[in-house]
Amino acid sequence: MAALVRTVQLKILQQQKQAIWMSQRGMTSNTKRKGFSLKSMRRLQQDYDISYTGLNRFLQKRLKEEFEKSESFIPERHQFLGPDLATAHFVVAREGSVKFVGNDRWFKEDENKNNFLPNRPVMDMYLEAINCSNTMISYRGLDNFIDLEYLKYLNFSNCHHVDDWFMSRLHQFSETLEFLDISGCKNVTDRGLECLHILKKLQGLKLSDMDHVENLDLIVLLLQERFPDCVIFGIDSKPQKQIETDINSKPQIITEKDSGTKPHLQIKTRT
């Protein structure tokens, strides 16, 4: 990184000197010198922060812009391939893997960047499971996860960009999703976990390495009350004394009668 920053610094200084030299000699955008216009010279004469910190900040900004652009929804891709295949291509291109209904094979890129997914529409090819663990996916990427009517399994474990805003976007899977893994997602807080109440068919939830979440034990009890048939993995068992304390202060779902609004997840202890 230091070598790259130094190279950029030298390049900018060289171009600025050349722009100043040209402007002093009255060269304009009509100058025949290839590659330089008046607009380019004005840009080069601006006061840039070419310190290591300034250039590092500039490079990070560019990387962020490219990352956000890479997650953009491409309507043409979905229109041509259909939502399931289009989403599959989006996922495997980011080092994830996918599985289709009736097929035990997980599709992912090999060392040669081949994913073996069809590049044309295929009938009766529906996504059933998506594994995005350890990828860079963010909430913007969920724009590509649309109209997945058969999706039952999602794994976003150890994804740095999965946060509370990301969790609030999971409502689009409320009618089909049965298993969710968000283990190790350090940017998910108790507010993000409260969004899980919208997943109507949830049967399995993995929350390993989530000790940073405040009131995690109470939220788990609340989720178990909301989803009696859901198995929650990754939560360490507690001493009997602590379990008794939790039972005595077991959280409830606030109902419409209690709050005047629709039922939602919120901690309300019994007194």
Automatic annotation (TrEMBL):
It comes from the Eukaryota. InterPro entries: LRR_dom_sf. Belongs to the ATP synthase subunit s family. This is ATP synthase subunit s-like protein. It comes from Patella caerulea (Rayed Mediterranean limpet).
